[in-house]
Design a protein that fits this description.
The complex is a heterodimer. By secondary structure, chain A is an alpha+beta fold. Chain A has 5 helices and 4 strands. Chain A has one domain: 3-Layer(aba) Sandwich (Glutaredoxin). The radius of gyration of chain A is 16 Å and the shape is globular. Helix content of chain B is 41%, strand content 14%. The chains are: A alpha+beta, B alpha+beta.
Amino acid sequence: MYNDYKDRADFLAVYIREAHPLDEWQMKKNVDENVCYPQPTTLTQRIAIANDFTQRFHFPLPLGIDPMSNLADHLYAGWPERLYVIDESGKIVYRGGIGPFNYHPAEVRAWLEKRFPEVHVEVHDEVHAAD
Amino acid sequence: MRVLKWTAIGLLAILAIAFGVGCYFMGSPRDLYGFLRYALPQWHRGDLRVGNPAPDARLIALDGQSSFYLHERIGARPLVLIFGSYT
């Protein structure tokens, strides 16, 4: 989606508190993939994990890290994952549900398709908005 | 006394079924506990709606040295916001 629409829309990933740290609700999948971190207690730790993430996946999107106050997460109810679209006037035009069950990048794609009908792309099954 | 006994048995049976169904959908008893402990309290968090102004928040850059405000990224084009973490 990012590659399809990056010339017409801006994308910003907001890195928030961990969803499945090893000292809280760790997932087997994360153990299998060696993604094992405790919940950061300092900003330095959170920044380090965010950098591990972007480097491992060569994450192409601009990314901002929520400070330890978790203000962005609090304001947007972002945990564990959630999608929004904000229009040019600063209004929310799409608010996704709480992930992973209600995390639907295809709904964002549908909004972008409606807004930019001139963009013709081959639609793939999308799991992550950055794909 | 007999009614009380069967009521207790019925409640235990309902709890056992709910536990079994929960474990099935979440994958394991541990994940069911994690869902109830960490996810369920977050389920109805946040009151933003479509049409509301997007709140502003300061975000730290990956270098850890600089920061920017979310509102600085709004205005020129639609902005897709993706909240998430590594784990």
